[in-house]
Amino acid sequence: MSLPPCPTCHSTYTYEDGANLVCPECGHEWSAQAAAAETARVYRDASGTILQDGDTVTVIKDLKPKGSGGVIKQGTKVKNIRLVDSDHDIDCKIDGFGAMSLKTEFVRKV
Question: Do 4 and 14 touch, CB atoms closer than 8 A?
Answer without folding.
Answer: yes
